[in-house]
Design goal:
Elements lengths: L13 H18 L14
Length: 45
């Protein structure tokens, strides 16, 4: 079993995705690094 099977991509609304994208931009400006945020939904097994 792959570790990725326990962490599927989160199903986000458009407004929630926009918040993540904005935070990525802010972090890139502050750190001068290519920051990428990933949202996932941990499966309960």
């Amino acid at each position: 079993m792959s570790v990725y099977e326990n962490f599927p991509v989160a199903n986000l609304e458009e407004s929630q995705l926009a918040k993540i994208t904005q935070l990525e931009k802010e972090l890139r400006r502050e750190t001068n690094e290519n920051i990428v945020l990933i949202a996932y939904d941990e499966k309960d097994e």
